[in-house]
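User: Hello! My lab partner asked me to get a predicted holo structure for this protein. The small molecule is 2-acetamido-2-deoxy-beta-D-glucopyranose, SMILES included with the sequence. Please write out the structure tokens.
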Amino acid sequence: MLSFKRALIFAVFFLTAFILLRRSHTSNDPEPFRKPPPQPEGAKDSHGGASHNPSTTSYTPDTAVKDQELPAQKAIQQQDMSKMSLYEKLAYQYPYDVETKFPAYIWQTWKWTPASGEFTFRDQEASWTMQHPGFVHEVITDQVAVHLLKLLYAPIPEVLEAYNAMPQPVLKADFFRYLILLARGGIYSDIDTQAIKSALEWIPDSVPKESVGLVVGIEADPDRPDWKDWYSRRIQFCQWTIQAKPGHPVLRDIVSRITKETLKRKREGLFVSKEKSVVEFTGPAVWTDTIFDYFNDARYFDMRSSQGNISYQNFTGIETPKKVGDVVVLPITSFSPGVQQMGAKDYDDPMAFVKHDFEGTWKPESERHIGETN
Ligand SMILES: *[C@@H]1O[C@H](CO)[C@@H](O)[C@H](O)[C@H]1NC(C)=O
Ligand SMILES: *[C@@H]1O[C@H](CO)[C@@H](O)[C@H](O)[C@H]1NC(C)=O
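Assistant: Hello! Below are the structure tokens for the protein in complex with 2-acetamido-2-deoxy-beta-D-glucopyranose.
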């Protein structure tokens, strides 16, 4: 609910906090903006893991890396960010710590703020506030998003260049959700999506919250021979609702991919075409690929004990949440209830968490997606 005035206050607040935190950098206080240096490849985030199904992939506990953190941190302060890869810069700017709490933020974006007469998602928007007392809930307009991102990504100008180069609001809206979750964490949800259950209930009590850094839902699980006519992936994770802790490696990876691809397309002068759809560029296809690549990434998971790659087969037909590493994948009912196919149950099912507005029909997904955000 940001009016322009509030947006300015918000921006000034971020800027002040940013400067103060940078100044306090010399002290030993925990400091959210710059923390551990990028560790050597193969060791990254190894301390951020949690044990899980031992028959599959698991994090490698690596105490040696932890011990090195302090001297390395000093060294990195003198180091020049320009020598880092984009992925490393993002890791440096927004380090990940699985043991922190999920931040109590709800981020949404729309052309208008709820204060505007043109705002037509009052019920959906209110459902998030009602289900999440004590959370900070912001509906960010495009105008405000630009300022907010400038503050959050000032040290990594290529990210801002990519955001500004995107020619369509749908691309920016997709990109924004990954950027805000990478920097701040919390919940992102599309404006046309209603909260049925509080996010505090999304993860079963049996799963410790300090072992989870990302919660995703299934958009589509089309177990039919012609699935390719309808979906770009056999299992597709949805990106209309995502919960994350800041700095999660999946977010780091997708921001890095989209930034690079955007700057490439900017040079080529061609952003979206029949072959280069929104779904593949910023939407659920690239989101799904990034998550699966994380599951199969030896930097984060010990592949030696694994019995083959994690694929759609590990998630097809699931009816309860499934945890792989620090990621919880919710069944299709959770974020796509009431679609009356692919095994999704109805809105009153105990596993139904959000109600997404599909506009009643199954249009080809790229079309549907553009319709949603434009
Ligand atoms: C994923 O599926 C493969 C084969 O389908 C299996 O070997 C592996 O153990 C599964 N992993 C998880 C985490 O369920
Ligand atoms: C497993 O996944 C990795 C990363 O996506 C890929 O390079 C490799 O070829 C896959 N292996 C198999 C057996 O599918």
